[in-house]
Design goal:
Layout: E1 3-9, H1 13-24, E2 33-39, H2 46-53, E3 59-63, H3 71-77
Parallel strand pairs: 1-2, 2-3
EC number: 2.4.-.-
Protein name: Glycosyltransferase
Pfam family, one: Glycos_transf_2
Amino acid sequence: MKISVIIPTYNCSALLAASLRALQQQTLPRAQFEVIVCDDGSSDDTAQVAAGFSGSLALRYLWQADQGFRAATARKLGE
């Protein structure tokens, strides 16, 4: 694995889907990058959107309870 793409998100499932579709179009072989979605307690369909891409991307979905803005903590979960 050469590259980790970390996407922090909160209730932005449509934007997440667009981002993941863009990553599917990359010319870098999929074996060379992973996608880590760090969800800060979304209440929309973010989890389902991420799950829909798990077969086509090396994707990990991490969820944490919403306790206010904590993007740095979400990024740390990806390590």
